[in-house]
Amino acid sequence: MTTKGSTYILESEEEIIRLSNQHDLIKDEAEGLVLAPINLAAKPLRILNSATADGTWIRDLTQDYAAMPHDFVGTDIDSSNEPKNPVSHQTYQIQDIQSPGLPTGGPMQKQIVSTPDDLVKPGGWIQLIEATNESHESHGLAVAIVGGIYSAFSSSLKLTKELLEWLKELGFEDVQYHDIDTKLGPLNPNLHLAKQGVYSTAVTAKSVAYYGSTLPAGMIPLTAEEIANAPDQLNVELVKVGAVYPLRIVWGWKPAA
């Protein structure tokens, strides 16, 4: 939920399409939605999907396990896209961006783990996915802009490496991770996914560049013109050459009390 009079920068139909495209890319590369060793066919579980958007992840997993009535709860800071009439066993609710339950930047990044930890029952699992923010040649400008934004919030670009230790500090066991490289443009052999990757990245680049342009001069090591031109330049590179966008999926088990 945004504050009164403010606008959520990614609130648009474009953003929902972007997230859906990204969902397909991740599922294809990871070969599934849940990498934690959970037997989803054994018994009904209560599953929280944070940053659910329009509930694509929930609906997809529901279809994969249609015979098992899992209870899903989806939360997001923008409620405009959540299903208006969710089916049985699916609940959606707003997540206030100012509440302790939603991390922002700086030291609060650790709440990405500590807050969901409070919701994981003994014997349950947590799974997180984040960009590694590793710089590939064709993502040079994009990474520079993202780096400036992270610096503005005193946030760490190495969040995915810190997640492993944070989970262990919170008492999770069997902490593991799996790195995937989502392939964009010509690098993806699936033509449909190749186009989805270009589109989703281009939409992100526009929003990130816009926000980056509002930061104080010098915070991003690029000129105002370079920031403004970055989305178009990135899109051209993605269409012609393609790129790899690395992600890390981390999971851990909360011991039974």
What does this structure look like?
It is a single chain. Helices cover 39% and strands 18% of the residues. The protein contains 7 helices and 6 strands, in the order αβαββαβααβααβ. The strands form 2 sheets. The chain has a 3-stranded parallel sheet with strand order 1-2-3, with no helix packed on it. The protein has a 3-stranded antiparallel sheet with strand order 4-6-5, with helices on both faces. Helix 1 packs across helix 6 (191-213), helix 4 (140-152) packs across helix 6 and helix 6 runs antiparallel to helix 7 (224-240). The longest helix is centred in the last third of the chain and has 23 residues, at 191-213. It is globular and about 55 Å long. The chain starts with 12 loop residues before the first helix and ends with a strand. Mean pLDDT is 82; it is low at 1-8 and 100-104.
Give the fraction of residues assigned to helices. 25-40%
Average pLDDT taken over every residue: 82
Strand order of the largest sheet: 1-2-3
Largest sheet: 3 strands, parallel
β-sheet strand percentage: 15-25%
Strand segment count = 6
**Which regions contain 5 or more consecutive residues with pLDDT less than 50?**
1-8, 100-104
Query: What's the gyration radius in Å?
Result: 19 Å
Instruction: Report the span from N to C terminus.
Output: 34 Å
Shape: globular
Number of helices: 7
What's the order of the H and E elements?
Answer: HEHEEHEHHEHHE
Structural class: alpha/beta
